[in-house]
Amino acid sequence: MNALMLDSPFLKKRERLFENSMGFVIYDKYPVSEGHCLIVPHRVYSSYFDSTKEEIDALNHLLFETKSFLDENYQPTGYNVGINCGIDAGQTISHVHIHLIPRYEGDVNNPEGGVRGVIPDKQKYK
Question: Would 124 be classed as within a structural domain?
């Protein structure tokens, strides 16, 4: 485990909204919207593509459980789901985590293109 992993907020005890044998859910420490959550595996590894089938199934279960929770408690009108894989994709924490970002009507002027906005000049494709 490298020093970055040891200092990771994922490894410190945080309030967990949900948990199963493979992972847990926490609120993002720096949310981009109200209710922004992270789905995090217990096993510490960097790339989502190194996940086992069992981890993917369990993390996906937590993703849907969290969506239901957010629907009930925050009433978003949409969602973005994202995983940063690698430094060039913006990954700053060397521990896989899935962002579930609730979206709300009017939270940006024009949401067209959604996750394509990670490269702003490519967001609009029409």
Answer: no
Active-site amino acid positions? 97
For 56-72, the pLDDT digits (tens) are 999 999 999 999 999 99
Domain, as residue range, for 95:
3-105
Half-sphere exposure (Cβ direction) of 60: Cα atoms closer than 13 Å: 8
Tens of pLDDT, residue by residue over 79-91, are 999 999 999 999 9
In a domain, 66, yes or no: yes
99: its two tokens: 């962002």
pLDDT of residue 1: 34
**Amino acid making up residue 108:** V
Return the bridge partners of 9, or none: none
Domains in the chain, number: 1
Task: With beta carbons less than 8 A apart as the criterion, state whether 41 and 96 touch.
Answer: yes
Locus of tokens 């709300």: 104
Q: Is residue 42 part of a domain?
A: yes
What the block records as the tokens of 32 is 């981009």
